[in-house]
Amino acid sequence: MQRFLARSVFSEREFPRWKRCFSSLAEAQKEAYNGVDVADVPKIPPFDFSPPPYDGPTADEILAKRKEFLSPSMFYFYKKPLNVVAGKRQYLFDEKGRRYLDAFGGIATVSCGHCHPDVVDAIVSQTNRLQHSTILYLNRAIADFAEALASKLPGNLKVVFFTNSGTEANELAMMIARLYTGCHDIISLRNAYHGNAAGTMGATAQCNWKFNVVQSGVHHALNPDPYRGVFGSDGEKYARDVQDLIEFGTSGHVAAFMSEAIQGVGGIVELAPCYLPAVYSSIKKAGGLCIADEVQSGFARTGSHFWGFEIQGVVPDIVTMAKGIGNGIPLGALVTTPEIGEVLTRRSYFNTFGGNPVCTAAGLAVLKVIEKEKLQENAFVVGSHLKERLTALKNKYELIGDVRGRGLMLGVELVTDRQLKTPAKAETLHVMDQMKDLGVLIGKGGYYGNVFRITPPLCFTKDDADFLVDVMDYTLGKI
Prior knowledge:
This protein is an alpha/beta fold. It is built from 14 helices and 18 strands.
């Protein structure tokens, strides 16, 4: 196994030092890209759709504008960035009309599939009738969607506040918890990602995403990570750390505990079994609220459940959501109980675009499509098949240290040493780039940047899953 040293960033700067090591594979992929039949290269499943011709600027021209006019903080995947010009269902198309299997779903955002006709029709129809007014007037779109969304949640979770993103929803959740309890302290998990605004940056617990600005009132508990955590899969042992934080890091009373059911940006880390019930009990005794961040794991993505928190059999006080809620439309939401929601009436709370007619019409269409096309069931069936095949790859390649997640929210962690769990940063970048050249787009995450994030549209098929694994197998086999 060859090993490489590289920094964990996302640009083309990673590749020149060691790309010569893979010249034979690059040549094969170059042939495949140019349409030459290479016998052992996996073939993308057939798909009866051709995008309209593209006559816009090239990838190089767009990249030049981006470098001149957009923030330098904006990174991109691949040594040669992809210019995506069209999408349909689980596929994306570049400027030359080449088709790619989208196994990242716009960061777990495309739930129904790219340009789903029912969602597009809802957006266009509402836009033609009324694009924007304000929640100061009545409109059926926001009311209908709020009712439908509340019906998908347990207990008395039925009061909805609409936002434009997951960060906004989590910011609002933290503020509501502090107002309701009268406490300031919030507990979240190490390795968590909850957003990049003032409050959520404090709840986020990776230095990669935190600027050196004031972040107060948040305590980070041990991450109940079955793969890298100190207690393995013993959720109750991790939960004791939360109790310790309450007793030794706060006044004994807290505002809230916030967590994802499966950490997305953190590398598809599913919390250890029995963790949330024990933690929720400690938080309740300390007078706090329990916040479930469902921005990535919600809306049927886990397959086994509609919401990630249901995996551990708990009912939170506040649920936040975004991404898959709108299939790509900028939309987020917070759902809580009537009693807790009442705290916002103490002052004026307002969001100009939150709950606008176009976005909420799209959200309602998404819920209908998930139910009509049985996408939760599909996520379970296809996701189980995909995880089984990825696990078989783990048994074949020492480079794969762990396969985890559920449904169509899966992670594959690469390590150069299984015992030491040494992050395989350079290999991860290389495999991603080569898989792109063969027609498969996957994401990357984890603190060390060594975890493949597989979060495709929920219309993914078994043939798509097989193609993804075959391409990964082919690429790993060339290292």
